Amino acid sequence: MRYALVIIYLILTISGLIFMKLGGNPGTIGLKNSTISMDMSLVSGLGFICYIASFLLFTRIVIMFDLSYIFPICAGVVQVATLIASYYVFKEKISMYGILGASLIIIGIIIMNIKVNNTVKDTSSINIESTQKQIKNM
Asked: For the chain, how big is the Rg over CA atoms in Å?
């Protein structure tokens, strides 16, 4: 369930960014007669809603995972996925430096997920028992 929320977060974030750019209208926010008004295109509004929903979902995800683990992974995946989506949706060019940077992000995510067995064998009881035997034999 936790990982499903992360996938939904990633989809909402990337969709929000894509829709906001597709809408081409950053929108305006105003205050008139003690009323807050907001004006933007429908597509930009959809992107705004997706992005706000992803933010709200991320506040829940942060509680479910270690922050030092989940934030770098989500940020890296969003950057790489946005790079790929912008290539296909907006026909943006990706430079060799962009490919290199994305590759380094992916390598970093892989390294962060390597599980290392850091268990240390507890030898304190063995040493005490062998010391006791040595004392008895004296």
From this structure: 26
Contact call for residues 73 and 10 (beta carbons, < 8 A)? no
Q: Which conformational region is residue 27 in: left (phi greater than 0), alpha (psi within -120 to 50 degrees), or beta?
A: left
Residue 32 bridge partners (DSSP): 35
52-99 pLDDT, tens digit per residue, is 999 999 999 999 998 888 999 999 999 999 999 999 999 999 999 999
The pTM of this model reads 0.72
- 100 three-state secondary structure: helix
Tokens representing 64? 């479910």
Tokens 């829940």 identify what position?
60
Look up residue 95 and give its DSSP letter.
Answer: -
Contact 2, 23 (CB under 8 A): no
